[in-house]
Amino acid sequence: MSLAHGGGCGCKIAPGVLTEILASMPVPVADPNVLVGNRDMDDAAVYRINASTAVVATLDFFAPVVDDPHTYGAIAAANAMSDVYAMGGEVVLALNIAAFPEDLPTEVQTAILRGGAEKVTEAGAVTVYARVRPEQKLRIVEALQARGEVVAMTGDGVNDAPALARADVGIAIGAGTDVAMESAGVVLASSDPRSVLGVLKLSKASYTKMIQNLTWGAGYNLIAIPLAAGVLAFAGITLSPAVGAIIMSASTVIVAANAQLLRRVDLDRDRLCGQG
């Protein structure tokens, strides 16, 4: 098939070759928590965290023999996750090493990535793309946006500029290149990428305060102004214009004070990372 250049299951390393490769690797220090390791001649590893939890890491080279790129990506992702399911585990992270032929059309690459990402999303896991070229970063962003996702891209170099400009939110590292910072909509004051978590938290808190202040302002205008104009005077309900002016001033103070509460948002990077 056109997408499976290695001949489907023929892309998988033969058992004898895998045995030879693993045998040449240094023998790790004995660890009782390694339940399945490189001495077990398996493409999965299992490490025990505690009595009830273990981490399963698996790597699969299976290339689906299909011509539809979206199906190709979905099957490849599902096959890679099957080892985890076979061991009773739950998939939490998928690493996509995007290595495509240079002459593979952009739309085909996008469809493959989309198919794999959708399958991983169905499993409730997070997809990580690694070792990608600048144009592939841009295609990944476009593929995610084509799925209706809102994409935030963080980068620090010239190679990240196209993806930063294309993303819905581009975030440049403070110590990054001028091109990256010009392409991004947000520039971090520090060079610590963990600050992105603070940006997200502060953005959500700011949005919440904005809704609160708009609600208060709209509520005041919808109630106080008609009363001050005498709309309900026939029912004996009135509001003195002078009192209305005082309430307007109080409204401004309340909105400003509510906005000042943003200073209390905890943006400590260590604690944010600890919250997962």
User: What's the count of strands?
Assistant: 8
Can you give the mean pLDDT? 77
- Tell me the number of helical segments per DSSP (H or I, 4 or more residues long): 9
What is the CATH third-level topology name of the largest domain?
60s Ribosomal Protein L30, Chain: A
Q: Which term fits the overall shape?
A: elongated
Please mark out the parts with pLDDT under 50 across 5 or more consecutive residues, or reply none.
4-11
The major beta sheet can be summarized as:
3 strands, antiparallel
CATH level-four homologous superfamily name of the largest domain: PurM-like, N-terminal domain
Structural class: alpha/beta
C-alpha termini separation: 42 Å
Q: Mind telling me the C-alpha Rg?
A: 28 Å
How much beta, percentage-wise? 5-15%
CATH architecture of the largest domain: 2-Layer Sandwich
Order the strands across the largest sheet as they lie in space.
1-2-3
Number of domains: 2
Approximate helicity band: 40-55%
CATH class of the largest domain: Alpha Beta
SSE topology string: HEEEHEHEHEHEHEHHH
Describe this structure in words.
It contains nine helices and eight strands. The chain has 276 residues and is of the alpha/beta class. The chain folds into two domains: 8-149, 60s Ribosomal Protein L30, Chain: A; 198-274. Strands 1-2-3 form a three-stranded antiparallel sheet. Strands 6-7-8 form a three-stranded parallel sheet. It has a two-stranded parallel ribbon with strand order 4-5. Helix 2 (69-86) runs parallel beside helix 3, helix 3 (106-122) crosses helix 4 (134-146) and helix 7 packs antiparallel against helix 8 (241-260). Mean pLDDT is 77; it is low at 4-11.
